[in-house]
Specification:
Structural class: mainly beta
Shape: globular
CATH class: Mainly Beta
Oligomer: single chain
CATH topology: Neuraminidase
Largest sheet: 9 strands, antiparallel
Helix content: under 10%
Number of strands: 22
Number of domains: 1
Radius of gyration: 20 Å
Strand order of the largest sheet: 3-4-5-6-1-2-22-21-20
Strand content: 35-45%
């Protein structure tokens, strides 16, 4: 037993030394500028394909790399008014970038400026954008919802009492705005009880201005946890689910439920739409944005969180296509 323990310690030490010597530090500089441009390249992933039958079609898969050390750990995704992708990182940045094939120049800005020309390394996990360009984001480690301020100004923030007991590591992972201006926030931590549901909050309006939501309970099949969500024009709530398993592998899938089924203290069961699995696709998907087209066509963009672990994780962008009728 002692030999095994010594061997384990030696292996851990060798791994630590290898990481220090051979893994480049992509987090330097950190928090030293509040607005900057940089190029992002999108390299198609050869052989990428969805496994199995289902309503989802893989229309594109790319590995993203950025010409700035801060480009990593993307955790939430939305679509801007001009059709770009807007992602928040769990290091405290909002990054706006064109879709693959539409350009390369991205812009990053600090979510929480520190007043000294830098920014706070806040764990932002999801983003929502209003019709007028207003931007909201959630911070998991602080159980906080914020509305972005002007450049260089700290955002307006609130820590709702309904989220106060959520674990710092299993806090708010999703933020979605409904067509009528309500907001949905879902926590990643399971609630107590045999159902293993997840806490969902519905705010009647801007959560920063009206932080008194009601609580519902979301059931996710197959052990996956909710990590992002989007609300369609017909009231369908699309949820991105994720699960980590050994050996080092992630499971991801899309689920849906109906906004009409949500109410105070209600239990809502999400239905499985399709799994995101196949050659070249396994990674830590955490961000999702949806575009609606003519005739019920849907384009679903999904991005992975590399966790600044570029050897074993990547920043992958997926483009999935389906139809609204397939979510029923």
């Amino acid at each position: 037993m002692r030999r095994l323990l010594r061997a384990g310690r030696l292996l851990a030490l060798l791994l630590f030394v290898w990481l220090i010597l051979f893994v480049p530090d992509r987090t330097v500089p950190r928090g030293t500028r509040i607005l900057f441009d940089f190029p992002v390249s999108a390299e198609p992933i050869e052989g990428a394909a969805l496994s199995g039958d289902g309503p989802l079609t893989l229309a594109g898969a790319w590995r993203l790399t950025g010409g700035a050390s801060e480009f990593h750990s993307l955790s939430g995704l939305a679509i801007t008014q001009d059709g770009q992708l807007a992602a928040v990182s769990d290091r405290g940045l909002l990054i706006k970038m064109p879709k693959p094939g539409e350009g390369e120049l991205a812009t990053a800005r600090a979510l929480v400026p520190d007043g000294k020309g830098g920014f706070a390394l806040i764990d932002s996990e999801a983003i929502a954008i209003g019709e007028g360009g207003e931007t909201w984001f959630v911070s998991e480690s602080h159980n906080m919802i914020s509305r972005l301020g002007a450049l260089g100004e700290r955002p307006d923030s609130v820590r709702p009492a309904a989220m106060a007991h959520w674990s710092a590591m299993r806090g708010p992972e999703t933020l979605a705005r409904t067509p009528d201006g309500r907001f949905i926030v879902i926590g990643e931590g399971r609630e107590e009880g045999r159902d293993g549901t997840f806490p969902g909050l519905v705010f009647d309006g801007d959560p920063v201005a009206a932080p008194e939501p009601y609580l519902f309970h979301l059931k996710m099949p197959d052990g996956l946890r909710p990590v992002d969500a989007a609300v369609l024009s017909d009231g369908t709530v699309l949820v991105l689910g994720r699960k980590f398993g050994l050996p080092f592998r992630f499971e991801s899938a899309l689920y849906a439920f109906d906004l009409d089924d949500v109410g105070p203290a209600r239990r809502v069961v999400a239905r499985l739409i399709g799994r995101i699995d196949g050659p070249g696709l396994s990674d830590n998907y955490e961000g999702m944005a949806v575009e609606e087209g003519a005739g019920g066509a849907l384009t679903i963009w999904i991005v992975s969180d590399s966790n600044d672990a570029q050897i074993i994780q990547r920043t992958i962008l997926l483009k999935l296509e389906t139809r609204r009728s397939a979510l029923r």
